[in-house]
User: What shape does this take?
Amino acid sequence: MSINATLFIQLIVFFIGAYVTMKFIWPPLIAALEERQKKIADGLAAAERGRADLAAAEKRAQDADREAKARVQELIAQGEKRATALVEEAKDAARTEAERIMAAARAEVEQEVQRARQQLRDQVAALAVAGAERILKREVDPRAHAQMLADLKQEL
Assistant: This one.
């Protein structure tokens, strides 16, 4: 065989090999590369969506945290208002109770004053009777002069 025939056969084998490669090997290889490229692109898109979801979740968490803090502040303010109201109610109740006790004490003092006046009236009446008895040098009958003693008590 000559060099030309060898070259020609090698060219034929090369083209047959190239044809077989392009027909049977190249399409699955390209398909695998395209599939891999698609998977990578999908993975990058998913990662980007994940980042966006993470950012949104962080924003929601911050909003929820801010809302919770506002609610806590509101509850604290309500608690302070309620505590102030309770203190005021207790003060009012204490004032009312103190006024009631003072009124009762005043009434009791007034009763004691009236009792003391009555006792003094009785003592003055008894002293008047005793003085009149000494002056008249005779005994005055308390039953007979009860009206006179009652008038004397009223005058005192």
